Amino acid sequence: MGKRAISGAIVVFLMGAAAYASFYIAPEEKTMHVLQRIFYFHAATAWAGMTGLFIGFVANLMYVWRREEKWDALGVACAEVGLACFTVVLITGPIWAKPAWGIYWTWDARLTSTFILWLLYISYLLLRTLVEEPDRRALLSALFGIFAFIDVPIVFGAIRWWRTQHPAPVIMGGPGSSLEPTMLKVFFFSVFALHCLVAFLIAERYRLEKLRGEFEIVRREAEAL
Amino acid sequence: MSLLSNTAVLLGKELRTEFRSRELLTTTFVFILTIIVLFSLTFDPTSDESRRFAPGLLWLAFLFASSLMLQPCFLREQLNDTLSALRLSVSDPFAIFLAKLAANTLFLLLTELLLLPFFTVMYNVPVLRVLHWLVLVFFLASLGISIAGTALSAISAQARMRELLLPLLMLPLLTPILVASAEVTRALLDRDPAVLWQGIGFIAVFDVVFLTAIWLFGEYLLEE
After folding, report:
1. Would you call A147 an interface residue with chain B, using a CB distance cutoff of 8 Å?
2. Residue ranges per domain, chain A?
3. pTM of the entire structure?
4. CB-based contact, A132 to chain B, within 8 Å
5. H helix runs in B70-130, sequence order
6. Would you call B161 and A139 a contact, using CB atoms and an 8 Å cutoff?
7. Counting beta carbons within 10 angstroms of the beta carbon of residue B64, is it exposed (0 to 12), middle (13 to 18) or buried (19 or more)?
8. Cβ contact (<8 Å) for A127 and B159?
9. pLDDT tens digits along A102-133
10. Model ipTM value
11. Sequence-ordered list of residues with C-beta below 8 angstroms from that of A175, at least 6 positions apart, any chain
């Protein structure tokens, strides 16, 4: 049993516990009933994805500064995992929205900017496939990653800048916004579990990218022979 | 001081190159005109519908056009092998970006202003009473498009499939500009025109943020 298997098992356990807590421990919400429980998963994934993208942003900055291959590997690992999280967010959102609002999707500022964020990171990954030379690819994608991440505050800000149908922030949303204490505990436990999942996935993807880089070097040497 | 004088010289070069042939301006002008006509043909809007939809369509046309117009910005230097010469000629690479984005802003603004009469006639939306506000919005938004677009065209010029890649990188990044300027333009073209300061401020903030980003990271885009 290696370290990877153990940390994988811990992550699986935490995710299971978070699912149990959000269904059986958190109290039923007054107006939305069982439907509200997707919030523990939807919002927590968004938070974890945002953390992933933030680490990716730092990795991009570090690559531009230090030009070490590991930062490029971390950057792409974070972007992919962050993208996966936001894919989940964009799928669980409409599942909640249909019964709550009566529609799957609305073009309000928050949804739109999350979707744009998702598109930006798709473009980031596409850009990586379109530049052959590894150093150039790393530098250009790191710079684009930095520009793309500057778009992220717009996601957070948008909810306040324009009139919007997305539920107002219930956590850190200013005075008057609050969550029942048990709900808050369950929510933060989900946030913790999803952060562990994201950390585990990033570590695995980072390892894969490093291996891929090493393989690329060996392959080139073999071709040169 | 050397930054400004370098920029001025390079801007002169960009303008001379363009006004010698006027290729970029003519092509972009015709392109936007075609899109505006086609939009109008497909939807056949009444006057009230025009007021609602036209600003969005207009900005969409501007954005599409600029994603094509910014294409040659760095590609031209790359194909003629003049990028290293440019880099050697200035002490601060930021001057290259400043000159290019100033030129792009000018070209874009010029095209937009030339198209305004056609737009107002075809969509039957009077613009004269709010003209000065429109010019302000056009300027700030074109500046934003050029700032981000110039940086991205430096990226896409070094990749494969660059003609497709630039719009792909640019359009999602510029959505805030699209939404804000369409919003502000719509309020201006309303029966009771209003100036949306929030929107104008938003565009200005976007400009400042991305200009700072290019100031910080622009030189890495020009590495060879």
Report:
1. yes
2. 40-224
3. 0.88
4. yes
5. 72-79, 83-89, 94-122
6. no
7. middle
8. yes
9. 888 877 767 777 888 899 999 999 999 999 88
10. 0.89
11. none
